Amino acid sequence: MRLSALRIVLIGFAVAAAGVADAATRAPGKAAIASAHHLATDAGFEVLAQGGNAFDAAVAVTAALAVVESSSSGIGGGGFWLLHRASDGHQVMVDGRETAPMAVDAKAYLDADGKLDRDRSVNGALAAGIPGEPAALAHIAHKYGRLPLKVSLAPAIRLARQGFPLESRLQGMISVRKDVLLRYPASVEIFLRKAEVPALGTLIRQPDLARTLERLAKDGFDGFYRGRTAELLVAGVRKQGGNWSADDLANYRIKERTPLKFHHRGYELVTAPPPSSGGVLLATILNVMEGYDFAAMERADRLHLMVESMRRAYRDRSYILGDPDFVDMPIRLLTSKAYAAGLRSSLRMDRATASSALPEGGVIDGGTDTTHFSIIDADGNMAAVTASVNLPMGSGLIIPGTGVLLNNEMDDFALAANQANSYGLIGTDANAPQGGKRMLSTMSPTFAFGKDRIAVIGTPGGSRIATMVLIGLLEFFEGAQPSAFVAAPRIHHQYLPDAISAEPGAISAEDAATLRARGHVVNEGERAWGNMQSVVWDLRENTLSAGSDPRGVVGKAEVK
Questions:
Q1: Coil, strand or helix: which one is 311?
Q2: Alpha carbon distance 483, 476 (integer Å)
Q3: With the C-alpha atoms ordered 194, 198, 199, 205, is the resulting torsion angle positive or negative?
Q4: Alpha helices of 436-560 — where are they, by DSSP H?
């Protein structure tokens, strides 16, 4: 059953506007935080208790995660901080994505046969972009917070200096990257014991990182991008064969981006614009799906429609999107209802569209080991934050004297045209490396404003981030609580490879058979993925709720 597109748009604008307006005139009176580590959630509440707002708490949680979940994010990486200020409704995305060093040379990542050298693109100094997270923390504290940076960073500094007991998630990531960590003495000193993975409960102390965070707390931007920390970083990177310069660090700048906004069935979605592809993917997928009565469909039809919408959105991602400071992109067109109607015209509910039948394009992945947290404070300020170092443990390289574990986000560029990155995916010129350019991401921090409920949502998961957020939103739209929708089973399709990925239990045997009969390749029973964190404000009851993905094991969602 198809609905009038004009009717849907009009209803969506009216209802979503009511939700935003209601949030602007009310306050929940309590705060909610959901993050991937209980110590980071505690750090956020510690700063709130000292008079901080959601933005101070976002600084505290980000920095704490950099210490206790360094496999996923850190001050040697970057991310996106989506903010909503309750006092005036101001919304902004603070873009702290990494940038390519000015001396970047794509040929440096190729072997003698002109093929992409995977070791250089993901391990060691050449794999690392210029970090953006420290600049974002300093900017957010100065412009949006209530507290000095030294107060918001205090929990992370304490955790780095005093240490924390090793838990299973970080232990697993250390095990995965052990052979790379062994290459670098400073990495061995922190994360290994006698060249072996430490036992659970081992105290992980990072005194150099504590001193680096103290310099950041004292001097803000200059405490990281100039002076002693910068000197150590540049010298350490160059010693390991990298090409950073002092100017690369000193000239790094965060960008304040206007969030991407669109409407879907009574909700206003506020999400990440480029250089993230996440918001465009969400808008395209939901706009295509909007032409059908999704709620009334059988499960197999729902899955088919989701997959066909995902396929078309990821096709566009492959060859159009990149850093907006370097690439012109028709974002308004890609996120329009009319464009979605055109994509929908080739969609058949009884048959899969082969990806080979669509115009060609590759897909760039956004990295798998990332983190996300969501915050609403007592005044109604909101933060949705997704940060990353890309692969587990980033590049594996800690620069001596700094404690900074460097990212390997350079692999998110299309370092070699039409050659696969770490995940067997290819890229195009829109995402080719260039000095000062930000690599394309799929991180999708999102706000969903409705008449009755508001959600803050996001997850790690590389190229699967946007589809995970999509599934979480669809469950939220149908009334699910965050504890339920962060745990919902997940499917994914990204145009290439032309197959449906599915977690265990996400697709029944009967539905899998139906999808195969329509021409889909179905890989059901793959490993679980993602680590979604969400908080929800129920405007009818003026109550908060929070959910932390059980897949993450050590996450914590709390309201108080």
A1: helix
A2: 11
A3: positive
A4: 465-477, 482-485, 509-517
Q: What is the pLDDT of residues 121-180, one digit of tens each?
A: 999 999 999 999 999 999 999 999 999 999 999 999 999 999 999 999 999 999 999 999
Q: Cα–Cα distance between 317 and 193 in angstroms, integer?
A: 43
Tell me if 366 sits within 8 A of 440, measured CB to CB. Answer: yes
For 387, the 3-state DSSP assignment is strand
Which positions are catalytic?
370
Q: Are strands 370-376 and 267-271 parallel, antiparallel or unpaired?
A: unpaired
Per-residue confidence (pLDDT) for residue 26, from 0 to 100: 85
Q: For the packed helices 299-320 and 509-517, what is the interaxial angle rounded to 10 degrees?
A: 60
Residues 6+ apart with CB under 8 A from 168: 200, 553, 554
**Tokens 């969609």 sit on residue:** 347
Instruction: Give residue 114's pLDDT.
Output: 87
The two structure tokens encoding residue 456: 């803050």
The torsion of the CA quartet 45, 46, 49, 53, rounded to 10 degrees, works out to -60
Determine the pLDDT at residue 551: 96
Which stretch of DSSP H or E encloses residue 164?
strand 164-165
Q: What is the largest CA-CA distance in the chain?
A: 66
Tell the burial category of 548 from Cβ atoms under 10 Å away from its Cβ (0-12, 13-18, 19+): buried
> 54-68 and 133-143 are packed helices; what angle lies between their axes, rounded to 10 degrees?
160
Phi, psi for residue 457 in degrees, rounded to 5: -145, 150
In the predicted model, residues of the chain with pLDDT beneath 70 are: 1-25, 359-369, 417-428
Angle, vertex CA 218, rays to CA 217 and CA 224, nearest 5? 70
Name, in order, each residue with C-beta under 8 angstroms of 175's C-beta and a sequence gap of 6 or more.
197
Specify which residues 348 forms β-bridges with. Answer: 351
For the chain, the residue count is: 560
CA distances from 392 to 77, 107, 169, 176, 509 (A): 12, 25, 11, 8, 33
- Our CA angle for 226, 228, 229, nearest 5°, is 75
Dihedral (C-alpha) 120, 167, 402, 145: value to the nearest 10 degrees? 110
Q: In the chain, what are the domain boundaries? A: 5-26+257-366+443-544, 32-252+372-408
**Three-state SS letters, 45-89:** HHHHHCCCCHHHHHHHHHHHHHHHCCCCCCCCCEEEEEEECCCCC
Cis preceding-peptide flag for 275 (omega within 30 of 0): yes
**Who contacts 357 (Cβ-Cβ below 8 Å, separation ≥6)?**
none
DSSP helix/strand/coil, 158:
helix
Q: Which CATH architecture has domain 5-26+257-366+443-544?
A: Orthogonal Bundle (1.10)
Helix 278-289 and helix 337-344, axial crossing angle in degrees, nearest 10: 60
pTM over 0.90: yes
